[in-house]
Amino acid sequence: MLPNRLLLPRLLLLTSAALASDVSAQARVEMGGGASADSTSAVDSLRGKSGKLFARLVGARRDGPLRILQELFGDTATRRPGIYRADRGSRSFALITMLPFQAKVAGRIGSYRVGNWPRERSGNSDLPEGFIEITPNNLDTQVSQHFRLRDFLTHDQADVWPKYLVLKESLVDKLELVIADLQGRGIRVKRMAVLSGFRTPQYNAPGVRAGGRASDSRHQYGDAADIFVDNDGNGMMDDLNHDGRVNQGDARVILESVERVEKQYPALVGGAGLYRATGNHAGFVHVDVRGSRARWGTS
Ligand SMILES: [Zn+2]
User: Fold this and answer.
1) Tens-binned pLDDT, residue by residue, of the chain (299 aa)
2) Ligand 1 mean position to 186 CA, how many Å?
3) pTM of the shown model
4) I need a labelling partner for 5 at 20 to 30 A (CA). Which of 68, 102, 110, 181 fits?
5) Which of 75, 97, 119 is the C-terminal boundary of a domain?
6) Which residue range forms the structural domain that includes residue 44?
7) Distance 224 CA to ligand 1 centre (A)
């Protein structure tokens, strides 16, 4: 049974005026009290390496840009699980406060089944910090310019709400940097599709038995996504290298941008794998931020 406070309605919509004054207050704090700063600087500092993040996560570790988020949204919001939106027209921003990992009891959070993580009881130091509670109302929250929360959800239990999501903001930041790099090379990216983002251990396990998934897949930790560029929305990779065919060559175009991003931002280093088209999909690139370099399917 979840504590009562986790079941309370938890959407707080700040007015533009309230946010603007909070931002000014924070700008003064950040500038050491004396200097002046415009009201957008605090929000801009939250937008990640890509400059494209529209949301930041706070969990049990309470690390990251906590002080700015406390100033913008209030200390209570950084402690009470929920999604708090500050809407300022095109400059909207969200604070996502996660449920602690301990909200999972016997492989479930509420009615949503997630299963158990590898080595969960024997010292897996990589266990998720917490879960984002997803409802039909917050499903479309933009986490960055090109991605919404719904893009990363496990594809299961369609009728169970709320659902729960593990997501690392560094993954979203990296995906945005890959998009920016592609665009910088003259490749149009209006839409990057996520074939698979977070996979609960329960969802991941049957695939492992079939031999298709890693038992310790990074998808279980919210730091991996299988992606392809799909501007025309046909559910398949686009012809990125304009050779008249959609194949591994187009996945390779994305991989080249992953390489460039990792070179420029070593903190975002991780795995990358190319997957050829099968009966189930039309080819994609796996990208993660595991913290060490790994490559597969690239030769
Ligand atoms: Zn993958």
Assistant:
1) 444 343 333 334 433 334 434 443 343 333 333 223 344 677 888 999 999 999 999 998 998 899 999 998 999 999 999 999 987 666 789 999 999 999 999 999 999 999 999 999 898 889 999 999 999 999 999 999 999 999 999 999 999 999 999 999 999 999 999 999 999 999 999 999 999 999 999 998 877 655 566 778 999 999 999 999 999 999 999 999 999 999 999 999 999 999 999 999 999 999 999 999 887 777 899 999 999 999 999 98
2) 26
3) 0.85
4) 68
5) 97
6) 1-97
7) 6
